[in-house]
Amino acid sequence: MLLAVSKRHPVESIIAANEAGISDFGENYLQEALDKIEHLSSMRINWHFIGPIQSNKTKSIAENFQWVHSIDRLKVAQRLSDQRDPAGPKLNVCVQIKLSDETSKSGIELSKAEALCDSVDALPNLKLRGLMAIPAALPDLESQRLVFRVLAQEYARLRPRYTQFDTLSMGMSNDFEAAVAEGSTLIRIGTALFGSRG
Ligand SMILES: *Cc1c(COP(=O)(O)O)cnc(C)c1O
Fold first, then answer.
1. In 32, 125, 174, 178, which residue has its Cα 20 to 30 A from 198's Cα atom?
2. What is the CATH number of the domain that holds 141?
């Protein structure tokens, strides 16, 4: 699946992409995202929150998004589940894993992923769908593939444990070929689709 990452691009770009058949959009910054979601509320869009989550912001995320890719601690997952309307569809979530000593501060260590996944899977209003990572930028396909392979192996190992675990969220504009070669099921593409964010 293609997730169109529309952060710092205007609603006009989202409308154009949606008319071209894209239904899923990813946003990192909560207030920007909420403005877009409200503006485009008449359109059939699945909104994915893919940025770092502050625990005091979980309510708006639980109420306005269909997916969250950036679960890296139980406290945030618990709050999202508590704040999700139990009468509606569950919130689809991925656990974010830190694969290397990357610049990103987000993500849980690989060795702790299984325990977090087990806890998230037990929360009533969340649906654990898979794993996500944002590896450090690497220049060549082979080294990109080696990093993605680590996540793909963990995904394959955990997959039988959970009922609806079907999403390997990896690959961005600069490394999606490597991610797809390693079995990504969801690439998150911003720049290659919408151009530079300036
Ligand atoms: C911004 C962002 C993307 C898209 O990055 P591009 O390099 O523009 O494709 C994907 N995933 C996450 C988590 C992001 O923050």
1. 178
2. 3.20.20.10
Looking at residue 125, what is its pLDDT? 98
Residue 30 · residue 61 · CB < 8 Å: yes
Most distant CA atoms of the chain, gap in Å: 47
What span, in angstroms and rounded, lies between the C-alpha atoms of 43 and 15?
9
Structure tokens at 157: 């190992």
CA-proximal residue: ligand 1, atom 7 (nearest): 173
Q: What domain range is 75 assigned to?
A: 2-194
Is ligand 1 within 6 A of the CB of residue 8?
Answer: no
Query: Which runs of consecutive H residues, i.e. helices, occur in the chain?
Result: 11-19, 30-39, 58-64, 74-83, 113-121, 141-158, 176-181, 191-194
Tally of structural domains, the chain? 1
